[in-house]
Amino acid sequence: MNLQIISLEGHIYLVETVDETGSHLLTDRRNRPRKFHSLEEIRDHVSAKNIEEIWLEQQTPYEEMCGLSEETAPLRIRLNW
Cα(1)–Cα(49) distance, rounded to whole angstroms? Predict the structure, then answer.
């Protein structure tokens, strides 16, 4: 299983698990997207799971502000925990 961390503005992170069945957003008890406030908080939450790869994805509005197309790929960085 892989982990994809999506960084949003305001120091909010969403997390998806990715496996052979697809990607699945982590949700809270009310089935809403679970919000994390730091990478450390995410690491503590998933420490018991068998994670193969961890990716941090950052999408920013700066591409649009600089006149680049909306189809510009987000910045993806592989994390080593």
Answer: 9
Strands (E), the chain: 2-8, 12-19, 22-25, 54-58, 75-79
Is 49 exposed, middle or buried (CB count within 10 Å of its CB: 0-12, 13-18, 19+)?
exposed
pTM of the model: 0.80
Q: What is the pLDDT of residue 11?
A: 87
User: For the residues 51-63, what does the mean pLDDT come to?
Assistant: 82
Report the phi/psi class of residue 45: left, alpha or beta, with left for phi > 0 and alpha for psi in -120 to 50: alpha
Which token pair is 41?
Answer: 């908080």
Give 17: exposed, middle or buried? Use CB within 10 Å, 0-12, 13-18, 19+. Answer: middle
Q: Give the ranges where the chain is alpha helix by DSSP (H).
A: 39-46, 62-65
